User: What shape does this take?
Amino acid sequence: MEFPKIDEIYKLLSEKLEGWIEGGITLLPNIAVAFVIAILFGVLAKVIGNVSGKIMRRTFESRQIAGLLTSIIKFIIIVAGIFIALDFVGLKGTVTSLLAGAGIVGLAIGFAFQDMTENFIAGIAMGIRKPFEIGDVIEAEGVFGNVREINLRNTLVETFYGQLEVIPNKILFRNILTNYSYLGHRRIEVPVGISYADDIEQAAKCITDAMNEKDYVIKKDETAVYAESFGDSSINLLLWFWIRYPGTPSFMEVRHDAVTTVKNVLDENDILIPFPIRTLDFNAKGGDKLDAMLSKRQESNNEKSGNSNCASTASDN
Assistant: This one.
């Protein structure tokens, strides 16, 4: 086996080094300009990042979302500066390779962490749309309570039972969500039954007038009582009225006071809230009351007893 001579190896390396040095000297002005471009874009990214960061923190409730969007803006500016600098040096192929590699890596990460990515994107989308804010009362997927924190991947809700529920953002983004705080008011419904002997219009007027005297009732012209249905032992009414929500007094305190008020006003106007009444009818076709049937049964038994005595007397004779 023959080995190349040392002189030939030295000559080959020398030619390569000389070519690289000459190319570097030729590109030296471009390299210097590229460094200046990269530095300028770095400073620009910092300035724009600070300005956009203040705007984002005012716009979004979540500091994480604001910080993320600010970082994305700064990253885009820096990457753009690096690509421009590389292109200025003449490394267009490197720029193309980096872009292709970034796309492939992003696609692979998206497939590998699909669930996390979906929650992440949903968190950003909700931060922009803002369907709710920290402190709002929301209900979604069986969770009902106050929003305590909004993160990039999930939202923390404190229920009225004292538990802290962690809800993935994709669930809040894809499903029906009720925000009780958005409009600032809420309607309360209180069912009540009155006897069939009482006047419905009188009961409705008494209840409406009593409720409109309450300070917590708003939209007093919309306070109303409607006849809902016929019950087993009562006419079922439904009271509607509006309150500020959330606010003071609380929802439970208002509903408690409303039920108490309805009970008192009906008592004052001698309107009966009936107990359940059951009438037992043993006749297949209906129409006979229990006391009448018992009386008939007693008379029948007496007649049978009298006939039996008469028969016994005749036999003795």
About this structure: The chain has three domains: 21-112, 132-179, 185-268.
